[in-house]
Amino acid sequence: MLVIYGGLFFALFIRIFYIQSTGEVKGQQLEAKAAALYGKEAVLSAERGKILDRNGGVIAEDTLSYRLVAVVNPEATTDSDKPRHVVDPEKTAKVLAKYIPMEESEIHKILTKKLSDGRTPYQVEFGVAGRSISHEVMTAIKNEKLEGITFVSDSKRYYPNGPFASHLIGFALKEEQEDGSFKTVGKMGLEYTYNKELTGKDGSMQYESDIFGYLLPNSEKMVTPAENGDNIYLTLDKTIQNFLEESMTNVYKEYDPESMVAVVADAKTGEILAMSQRPTFDPDTREGLDSWNNNIIESVIEPGSTMKTFTLATAIETDNWHPNAIYQSGSYTLMDRTIRDHNLNGWGPITYLEGFQRSSNTAMANMLEYIGNDTLIDYFKKFGFGEKTGIDLPGEASGTLLTKWPINYVTTSYGQGSTVTPIQLVQAMTAIANDGEMMQPFVIDKIVDSSTGEVIKDEKPTVKGKPVSKETAKQVREILASTVTSEAGTAKGFAIEGYEVAGKTGTAYIPRSDGSGRYLTGNKNNYLYSFLGMAPADDPQLIVYVAVKQPKLEVTEVGSQPVSEVFTSVMQNSLKYLNINPEDVAEAEKTTMKDYVGENAENVQTELMNQGVTPVVIGDGGKIIAQYPEKDLSMTKGSIVFLKTEGSITLPSFENWSLRNLLAYKMMSGLTIEIVGEGYVESQSVSANTIIEKGSPIVVQLRTPEEIYSSPPVEETPAEGEELPQD
């Protein structure tokens, strides 16, 4: 026995020694087996980057959601009185079908499915239908008290503003990847175009645990941090976009048109401040999504008489504008083709200036004889027609300038036949608004690393060309303004209180969808009505383009009415929001900011007040450590200047402050200010002259200019000049 046991012990010793020296058993590495058994790896999910407006307002972001999980294996239940698995699949399926977008039969199939070897899985999930569940739905399901139903924290893409520039922003959805994981992927709009920049990189955490999943003592955790996606700041202004969305929704409900588009742009830089279309959709639910096209960029139109703006500019620039010369209105014949004015009999012999104000097609045809066909097309190309603007969005169309037949030049001069995109019209109008310099439109302000704050991409205004001189641009603005103020003008309904508007109406034929090359006719509901305008006329700050296709008009209504309701509301509210003072904007006195950092605040206050600006000191006074605006920036008199010093902060009165000034104060002071609403400050929760400690909450309520100022009524009498362009 001693020999036997001694032999067995010696054999065991040899085996242990062998295993320790080689680390192998039956050709398998024990270290690898142990690592597989005890080594764990957890995924650290990266957040998708945010899409924000120019002021940092959130347009799209990741937010907390929940993932639905059903525990189906009976082994999960240790106490039969408290089941932890799905006991009744039929009942569970019936209840869940009320809350998630999946048929009851499909839910039941998932709850009762088996693994390939016939065993019951421990738990199951419900694919896309069981993901991105809101807190409200999660709570409602929990209240049903279903056995075996649980939730795991997840994230979803959230669009807090509802239908808000939806065809521009697009949407992103969770998609299952090849490895079974889910990732948010951009499917449309900026979410799709900038998917790479917005998508982060998941991290991981590696650690050792026992078989029950508990962390082993002295084990090391290896963490690879997640890299969140980049944040994209747009040139959009949420306040102006909201003005536009609300106005378009009201008009869309009232007139039930086939479609609408509208754009608001900064006349000086080409930045797009707002962009929308109807029909639209809710990016959270995709409700209402019937077209994936951003019609402002991707669809072409025959622009109608808005194009006369650039025919006029060409005539002036080439010394072929004779405003007081007389021509015979009514009709114009070229070879076998006759075009007519919207007033078929015309107005008799009138001046070219009156003809433009009345939006006469025959005025343009007669002017073309002076300008010349090739010269007209050459200048239209200088204005950017016939080629893409280069806006930082995909799928842009270029439009076509027709030159095949002599009549094409004539119809192009007043906006029929040739095609353009709405964004091309806006780009071309910047040349008129900006003293001849044409600015390229753009929507991306900057792209920022969300982790470090480093600006990865910073867009700047780009001059695309100078199709006309400063003098020509000024003269065109004056003539465009006369279409609003003149008794003969077609745009009288586009006047707004306190500001001089310059612009051009348009009424264009709509091509038939049958490919016949002919146009819809029959009644006034079968046209595309539009307006391309800017304000203030002397020194334009904003350009607004609105087009309404086939509105349902009453007998007494004209096509310009739905267009003017959008234009006047959005333009007036936006100008007031931007603190652009009514009247004499071009002559407003300005002052240039000096560098006041390091100087005494009390002395600087006196100097600034003498210059006509309002200083606001943030702190106790004394030495200035920061200022806003910064040095060398020009500002109009009456503006607010912020001077930051050390010490405690006494809260000023925010009454009638704009959102922009409030955001600047919040940034410089570091105070916790909750801003409710948009527009101008109506009230504040903490009284002025109160000493505030950092961290103390302050609520400031704002009201929009639309609530403060009543919009001017649109003329009820039909404005002359809603021309019916000739086929």
UniProtKB/TrEMBL annotation:
The record ties this protein, via SMART domains, to:
PASTA
- Cell compartments where the protein resides: Membrane
**Key words of the record:** Membrane
Region of interest (Disordered), ranges:
705-727
State the InterPro entries in the record. Beta-lactam/transpept, Beta-lactam/transpept-like, PASTA_dom, PBP_dimer, PBP_dimer_sf, PCN-bd_Tpept
- The answer to whether keyword tRNA processing applies is no
Pfam families documented for this protein: PASTA, PBP_dimer, Transpeptidase
The keyword Aminoacyl-tRNA synthetase belongs to this UniProt entry's keyword annotation:
no
Where is this chain compositionally biased, Acidic residues type?
717-727
Q: Specify the PASTA domain's residue ranges.
A: 587-647
Q: Which family does it belong to?
A: Belongs to the transpeptidase family.
The protein's name = Penicillin-binding protein
Per the UniProt record, the source organism is Ureibacillus aquaedulcis
